[in-house]
Amino acid sequence: xxxxxxxxxxxxxxxxxxxxxxxxxxxxxxxxxxxxxxxxxxxxxxxxxxxxxxxxxxxxxxxxxxxxxxxxxxxxxxxxxxxxxxxxxx
Length: 90
Description:
Layout: H1 2-17, H2 33-56, H3 62-87
Helix pairs in contact: 1-2, 1-3, 2-3
């Protein structure tokens, strides 16, 4: 979970900072302030997902642990895809 969170968070940070690598005439979403805000929101979502899964999985039976972990991984996958989609607009 932590490794997936690090990967999704890394791409979220890249997406938030993508604006600084854009030229003056670039018009992609990642080159605007709203793109940076979306990138920051992705990073915050990753932090929330990893923290929530870590807290909820304390002292749980194996079946519930698999459900919580699977849901967390799916949420991190969505964050990763959102960050990649934002980066593709550069």
